Amino acid sequence: MATSASRHDKAPAELAAFLAKHDPSVRSLAIGLRRIVLDAIAPCHEYIFQMRSKIVLLYGATARVMADGICQIAVFRHHVTLVFPEGVELEDPTNALRGRGTIMRHVRVTGTSDLARPELPSLLRQARALVRVAERPGRRRREVVTRVKTPAPSAERVRRRPQARRRRLNPSD
User: Fold this and answer.
1) What is the SS3 string spanning 16-76?
2) Cis (ω within 30 of 0) for the bond into 85?
3) pLDDT tens digits, residue range 79-100?
4) Are the CB atoms for 82 and 119 separated by under 8 Å?
5) Helix/strand/coil (H, E, C) string of 73-117?
6) Confidence band (pLDDT; 50, 70, 90) for 11?
7) Starting at the edge strand that comes first in sequence, how are the strands of the sheet with 55-60 ordered?
């Protein structure tokens, strides 16, 4: 893994909160992979959210990260995966990409040595080049726009409105 400082070293507090339940080694992999992604593809949009079994970081050329997707990071319990929605289009001479689907490919990251793989930045730059979206004028060259979807409050914390009492119309009921 590169030891040089990056302008993308600081992760959002919400991401740190999502990652808090994970093992420190997985947290380190997720933050390290995020830094590699942002260094390779910025300017971009980042959308972070939590699902039941994983944390997802989507990256796109515009705010429409699903439609204009470049890549995504999926953080699981024991590993992190870098997913390329258009992975079959990427040149991969080292066979780093995995998957048998018709479009998507991924790279599984299980240790810090995987973050030092030289093909990761190359694959990310190729994926960025596939998304041909004109940059908006006036944007800073390496800007990253981050949005975080926070989970809805749990049922225990939601204060419910008391139900109205029903009056009996017929006293004999």
Assistant:
1) HHHHCCCCHHHHHHHHHHHHHHHHHHCCEEEEEEECCCCEEEEEECCCCCCCCEEEEEEEC
2) no
3) 999 999 999 999 999 999 999 9
4) no
5) EEECCCCEEEEECCHHHCCCCCCCCECCCCCCEEEEECCHHHHCC
6) confident
7) 105-109, 80-84, 69-75, 55-60, 44-50, 144-149
The residue whose two tokens read 């949005």 is 147
Mean pLDDT of 128-141: 65
Amino acid at 116: A
Q: Which residues face 71 on adjacent strands?
A: 59
What is the model's pTM?
A: 0.80
Residue among 67, 71, 68 nearest 36 (CA): 71
Check residue 3 and report its DSSP letter.
Answer: -
Tokens of residue 167, six digits: 């009056």
Backbone angles phi, psi at 120, to 5 degrees: -60, -55
Closest CA relative to residue 67, chosen from 81, 52, 86, 88 = 86
